[in-house]
Automatic annotation (TrEMBL):
Source organism per UniProt: Salmo trutta
Molecular functions (GO terms): antiporter activity; monoatomic anion transmembrane transporter activity; secondary active sulfate transmembrane transporter activity
Membrane topology: Multi-pass membrane protein
This protein's name: Sodium-independent sulfate anion transporter
Gene: SLC26A11
GO CC, any one term: basolateral plasma membrane
Keyword Transmembrane carried by entry: yes
Main location: membrane
Length: 587
């Protein structure tokens, strides 16, 4: 197993010469941080090679049918799914910090891509370049912390809505319907409206593929691990069943293609097939920065970027979020660490290089990463094998893809996205914190209107809830003859008005006015607005002949208050000391 990667060197405290700083920047440790392959490659073992080959081949056989299917979700010709599926394996081998993660097309990124490019391959490739550039710039500027502002309820709300949207969007292919609108609500309406036009062959094949995929997945999930008492024959049978269940997508698509080819050969084309696709490897060329429409109109780079609009924020962020979440989950499961900023850099460079081979935006795939981990991959080198499998498919198998039934690809997609609808998370939100249902439902419902509105709406609601907690900190009030008010969080300018209101209503407007001990041991920072408000409060307490004492001030906060030269500022190390002072004054 790959050992934990070294951490990126942090800043050194103290002075150092320019030569020492230059030497530190050019050190082998720094090079390892930017190229994690240098950490595990010198320790590579022959036994790891065997496991990486098996895992890479298995993931490759899973990737090919999924990539073809996800291109359909993105509204692009199926070959663009394969164009997007191989670059990540090569780039991530050098730059990735997780042994398990596989980069490539995913259901969510395909849905987002469809929302912004409208099935235009030229725009999809340009979007890939721009997303990669934004992600790489974020990594170099170490802006990964911005992702922390997208809360878990927002992510779950989006993924659940995306799963429903993607899954229902494939119903038309199972039914053999054509020319169904892409907008979700229109899609639902016209799918039911045109059910009488259903093609029986597509329905039968689609349902049969769904049944086989579900059964194979069930077999894999219920398969007991082999024990030491099992005979070699039993172990071999176990491995065979597990292998068949793991590459079920490829087997089902191949079988469905054979059925479609056979019917076509006998002159009975009863299935809707993929049809003609471009053959061979994609040319390596610079992505287009402008577009010429079929009627000869030229669309400039600026106009295309303007059309992308919020997609240039939504797609890069969601791509990074999805991949880093997957990397963290499997790093925790397999006991190693990842560098989130380096992961951001790896995804960004993958998208930049992918745009040179006509890829659309990619990210980490949970399903394929799970297959990679379960197959026993030892290093990111397994991605090279996966990439080679995809390249071989492009080079030699594209003519065979002509006969792939769309119903079989729809079955693959539906089975892939159904687990994303996590109803249990709603129960958890209800039990732990009911307010988390607000951003979850906001994101979930708005995503059916427009994907970007769902994410932005959820982030705005989460932000407002966060700001409300900052502006209305919890203040615990106890009466010991003197009021003791304990602040459960820090003080910043949004909370000053609320603190002022509490002190006035509880102490200054009481009859008679009451002294207060303000327990500040949780307060670790104050700003000018807070200091100015405290100055006024001290004056008001003095005018009414009562005391306001601060207790438990941290040194940094006390230093600021003393520097502000607040009149009549009194502070103690503990609440008890403050109560003693005020009790003595009262007596």
């Amino acid at each position: 197993m790959m050992e934990p990667l070294v951490d990126r060197p942090g800043p050194q405290i103290g002075r150092s010469s320019l030569g020492e700083r230059m030497a530190s920047c050019c050190s082998y440790r720094t090079l390892q941080a930017w190229l994690p392959i240098l950490t595990w490659l010198p320790k590579y073992r022959l036994s790891w090679l065997q496991m990486d080959l098996i895992a890479g081949l298995t993931v490759g056989l899973t990737t090919v049918p999924q990539a073809l299917a996800y291109a359909e979700v993105a509204g692009l010709p199926v070959q663009y799914g394969l164009y997007s599926a191989f670059m990540g394996g090569f780039i991530y081998t050098f730059l990735g910090t997780s042994k398990d993660v596989t980069l490539g097309p995913t259901a969510i990124m395909s849905l987002l891509c469809a929302s912004y490019v409208g099935g235009d391959p030229v725009r999809a490739v340009l979007l890939t370049l721009l997303c990669g550039t934004i992600q790489t710039a974020m990594a170099l500027l170490r802006l990964g912390f911005l992702l922390d502002f997208i809360s878990f309820p927002v992510i779950k709300g989006f993924t659940c809505a995306a799963a429903v949207t993607i899954g229902f969007g494939q119903v038309k292919n199972v039914l053999g319907l054509k020319d169904i609108p892409h907008e979700f609500f229109l899609q639902v309406y016209y799918t039911f409206y045109r059910i009488p036009e259903t093609r029986i062959g597509d329905v039968v094949l689609g349902l049969l593929c769904l049944y086989l995929l579900v059964m194979l997945q069930w077999m894999k999930s219920t398969l007991e691990p082999p024990s030491e008492q099992d005979t070699p024959l039993t172990r071999a049978a176990h491995s065979l069943v597990w292998g068949i269940a793991t590459v079920r997508n490829a087997l089902v698509v191949v079988a469905a293609s054979f059925v479609a080819f056979s019917w076509n050969a006998f002159g009975s084309p009863v299935f809707t097939i993929t049809g003609k696709t471009s053959q061979g490897l994609p040319p390596f060329r610079a992505p287009p920065l402008s577009e010429t429409t079929p009627n000869g109109t030229s669309i400039s780079f600026g106009e295309i970027v303007e059309d992308f609009g919020g997609g240039l924020a939504v797609i890069p962020f969601m791509g990074v979020l999805e991949s880093i979440a997957i990397a963290k989950a499997f790093a925790s499961q397999n006991d190693y660490r990842i560098d989130a900023n380096q992961e951001l850099f790896a995804i960004g460079l993958t998208n930049i290089m992918g745009s040179f081979v006509s890829a659309y935006p990619v990210t980490g795939s949970f399903g394929r990463t799970a297959v990679n981990s379960q197959t026993g991959v030892c290093t990111p080198a397994g991605g090279i094998v996966t990439g080679v499998v995809v390249l071989l498919s492009l080079a030699f198998l594209m003519p065979a893809f002509y006969y792939i039934p769309k119903a079989s690809l729809a079955a693959v997609i539906i089975c892939a996205v159904v687990p994303m609808v996590d109803y249990r998370v709603v129960i958890q939100f209800w039990r732990i914190r009911k307010l988390d249902l607000v951003p979850f439902l906001t994101t979930f419902l708005l995503s059916f209107w427009e994907v970007q509105y769902g994410i932005v709406g959820g982030v705005v609601v989460s932000g407002l809830m966060l700001l409300y907690n900052v502006a209305r900190p919890s203040i615990k009030v106890c009466d010991h003859g003197v009021l003791v008010m304990e602040l459960d969080s820090g003080l910043s300018f949004p909370s000053t008005e609320y603190l002022n209101t509490v002190l006035y209503t509880q102490a200054l407007q009481a009859s008679p006015p009451r002294s207060v001990v303000l327990d500040c041991h949780h307060v670790n920072t104050v700003d000018y607005t807070v200091v100015n408000e405290l100055r006024d409060l001290l004056r008001q307490f003095k005018l009414r002949g009562v005391g306001l004492i601060f207790s438990g001030l941290q040194y940094s906060v006390l230093e600021v208050l003393l520097a502000a030269d607040l009149p009549d500022l009194r502070h103690t190390a503990s609440v008890e000391a403050a109560l003693t002072i005020l009790s003595g004054n009262t007596q």
